[in-house]
Amino acid sequence: MKLLGISCYYHDSAACLIDEGRIVAAAQEERFTRIKHDNGFPVNAVRYCLAQGSQGAEGSPGGPGSDGGDGGRAVQIDGVVFYDKPLLKFHRILETYLAVAPRGLRSYVQALPLWLREKLWIPPRIEEALEACAAGAGDGGSPPPIYFTEHHEAHAASAFYPSPFDAAAVLTLDGVGEWATTTIGVGEGEQLRLIREIRFPHSLGLLYSAFTYFTGFKVNSGEYKLMGLAPYGTGRYTDLIKRELIDVKEDGSFRLNMEYFGYLDGLAMTNGRFAALFGGPPRPPESPIGVREMDLARSIQEVTEEVVLKLARHARELTGKRHLCLAGGVALNCVANGILLRAGIFDDLWIQPAAGDAGGALGAPLAVWHNAMGKPRVTVTGASGKRRDLMQGALLGPEFSADQIREYLDDRGIPREELADADWAPRIARLIAAGAVVGLCHGRMEFGPRALGNRSIVGDARSPRMQSIMNLKIKYRESFRPFAPSVLEERAGDYFELDRPSPYMLLVADVV
Ligand SMILES: [Fe+2]
Question: What separation in Å is there between the alpha carbon of 329 and the centre of ligand 1?
Answer without folding.
Answer: 6
